Each structure stands twice: as C-alpha cells, then as structure tokens.
Amino acid sequence: MESLLKLLLLLFITVCHRVLAATPSSPPPSSAPSYPEEALPTKSGYLTVNSTTGSAIFYAFYEAQTSYNKTPISESPILIWLQGGPGCSSMLGNLREVGPWILNQELTLEANPGSWNQIFGLVFLDNPIGTGFSIARSNQEIPRNQYDIAKHLFIAIQKFIALDKSFKNRPIYLTGESYAGKYIPALGYYIIKMNSQLPKESRVNLRGVAIGNGLTDPEIQVSTHAINSFYLGLINEKQTALLEKLQMNTIGFIRRGKWSEATDARNRVLDTLTNITGLATLYDYRRLIPYQNGVVDKFFEQCRGEEGVRSEGRQIFREVQQCGEWCVARGCDEEREGQRDLKDGVPSTLAWVKTMRWDGIPGFLEAERKVWRVDGKLAGYVQKWKSLSHVVVLNAGHLMPSDQPVNSQVMIQDWLLERGLFAS
Ligand SMILES: *[C@@H]1O[C@H](CO)[C@@H](O)[C@H](O)[C@H]1NC(C)=O
Ligand SMILES: *[C@@H]1O[C@H](CO)[C@@H](O)[C@H](O)[C@H]1NC(C)=O
C-alpha cells in the first residue's frame, strides 16, 4: 500500500494578475493565430463536466518527448497540472513553469530545458470551470467548495482517459502549486473514494500527488509569517508583535467560520508585511521585481474574455485538508518548496505537515534531511519517510519551476521513478 501513492509537497505561490477567461464562444488557444505551430499541444480541447449545461474543463496535453528505461511512451506516466489562484489558468504553469515551451518577455516561445514532459505525458487543466479557457455556462455552476471541484475534475479526468486507448493504463500523478494545495488533496481523496466503488476498468490509476508551495492549511500557515520574517532579518521585534496580532486576528475569524473576514484579515497580514519590508513581492524575498506573468495574458489577448472565479477566493479558509491526511495515510505524497517564498514557503509547509494525522509522521520528523545535489551542485534538501517526501529547492521562490527549471525536472523525475535520494 505504501508505494501505491506518493506525495510531494512543493512550495510555490500564486501569481496571476488576472484569470485568463474565455466566453463560451471564444476559440481555444490552439486556434489563436499567434500560437506557433511547434508549441501546439499534442491534443487540446474540452472535457464536458455537465452534459445538461455543457460546462467544460479545457485541457492541453503534451505527450512525453522521449521514452525512458525501455518504457514505451504509450506506457509512461501522466502528470496532471493544476494551477492555484483560485482561478488562475494552468496556462501560467504551461507557458511560464513546466510546459515544453516558455514564454519570454518578448512574447516569443523558447524550448524549456526543464520541461516536465521530457519523459512523462503532461496535461494542463483549467480548473475550476470559469477559469482560463474552461467554460462555466452559469455562475451558479461554478463550484464553491473542494468537494464540487473534485467532482468536476474527476469527470474531466475520466473523459480525458477515454480520449486514447493507451491512456487507460498509464499511471497518473496529480501535481500543482499554491492554491492547488487544496485541490490536490481533495481530488486525491475523491479519486480513491470513487475507485473503491467503481469496476476496475473505470478507475483512475492514481499513483501519487505533488504539491508545490501549497496553501493547504491556512490556519496553521498564517501563523508562520512573522517569525519567519523576523529570523530572516526582515522585520524587528516590534513589527513581529504587530504581525502576530494580525495573524491571531485571522485565526480568530477562521475559528468562527467567518471566511470573508478571514480572507481580508490574511490579506492584511501579507499587505502589512509587504509594506513594512518594502519587498517587491512576497513570492520571493530576493526578487527586485515581481514575477512577470502578465506576458501570459498579453499572449492570449485575443482570447481574453471576462474574469473567472475570483470570488472563489473567499472560500480559501473553508476547506481544511482532512483528505490530504487521508491520502498520506494511504501512502501518497511529495512536497517541494521554493525556499525564498515568504507566502507559502518552507516553514509554513513544515508547520502543517507536522500536524497530519498519519502514523508515519513521527518517522518523517526523525528522518534525516539529506543534501540534494544536481550535477554536483547544491540544489536543496530532501527529507523522505516511506511515501512522504519533502523537498526544499534552493534559489527559488513561489514559482519554483520557473526559477529552477532543470532542478525541478530532476526532482519530479527522480521522485516519480524513485531514483537517487528518492529511492525507497
Ligand atoms: C449540471 O447542471 C445542473 C444545472 O445547473 C445541475 O443541477 C447539476 O447538479 C449539474 N451537474 C454537475 C455534475 O455539476
Ligand atoms: C500599504 O501601503 C499602501 C500604499 O502606501 C497603502 O495603500 C495600504 O493601505 C498599506 N496597507 C497596509 C495593510 O498597511
């Protein structure tokens, strides 16, 4: 059972200025005139999640570039990428992080040396409906909790698998960052639950989940900003006390189930931290300018419609990660974190991981944190116990794969194939 599912926790942040949204009549990006031929996905289109209304999740699939270890491409694992936000298009991850082509500031595409589809299939889903190129026929249909999000994603994944005979038996791994730290555990849990009720041929072959710089348990995570910033030397004791007060205020709202107030209170923590430190972005305290993700919007300009589901952000505090705990208990997981992320960075992840109800946690906390090198160069640290791996990626912020493309590729491949420090 232990090897059935694995979990990878990564830390990245959500950086999207606007949601890429398409009205139902807008064309998918593959028909946009400026989209170069060589960067087109192997397959893309719509996976209907509600046959009554026609609401649908947009997908872009890139087949593996080469085979590995004599495993034919048609049998290689498939990674599913979910962006955070909530309400950020996965085209951000595609064109700025892990896809085979990366968009630069000149709005041209360059081959990504760290693409995650080098040896695995890679599919980007715009989730939930109403986000990016996905279609929500009505506002009422846009999910407002993790259970409904998982339900739609499960239907979409089943439809995706049905697109090609070879997809059926390929191992599936859920990956994503930031607010996907909520989607991924919820979806993992839902898949395991559904699989137990379905005949073998209708199951989703889920083998592991990987969360990068995830916002998974805000109540615990919000309490780490002050102390983390203090020990980084960014704020003094008086400012630490001020931030701690704001953090407690947020936690108070969460405990009373006041989700909107909690969201505003958390934003006050983060805004105050930004103001008093003068940092360009909390997503990476060393950056002099924020991540330039607006290029993705510019690139898809001709497809842009109305904004997606920003209101769903109000739900940030609603869902706790019980299913994450459940998933790990089944033996699933990896986490990875860009170390310079002040928002959903290393200390904030370690704080919630420690509270997981999984009998492997004492073993994990005692496990040695090993120095991780890529081509002889220091890349970060790996701590692993049974199915749970935690990776700290050095010299990276919230969008870790964009800061460390090659190391991110080595990480995802070694983790999935249980090589190097990830060997069991
Ligand atoms: C499909 O849409 C209808 C009408 O809004 C709704 O009643 C139904 O629950 C939806 N089904 C799913 C799977 O979301
Ligand atoms: C941060 O600074 C901006 C600009 O000076 C100001 O508008 C905002 O209210 C400040 N936010 C907080 C939480 O202090």
UniProtKB/TrEMBL annotation:
Signal peptide location: 1-21
Enzyme class: hydrolase
The enzyme's E.C. designation: 3.4.16.-
Entry's Gene Ontology cellular component terms: extracellular region
Transmembrane feature ranges: none
SUPFAM superfamilies: alpha/beta-Hydrolases (SSF53474)
Source organism, top-level taxon: Eukaryota
A GO BP annotation: proteolysis
Record keywords: Carboxypeptidase, Hydrolase, Protease, Secreted, Signal
Gene Ontology MF, one: serine-type carboxypeptidase activity
Localisation per UniProt entry: Secreted
InterPro entries to which the protein is assigned, alphabetical: AB_hydrolase_fold (IPR029058), Peptidase_S10 (IPR001563), Ser_caboxypep_ser_AS (IPR018202)
Keyword Signal annotated: yes
Family: Belongs to the peptidase S10 family.
Name recorded for this polypeptide: Carboxypeptidase
Lineage: Eukaryota, Viridiplantae, Streptophyta, Embryophyta, Tracheophyta
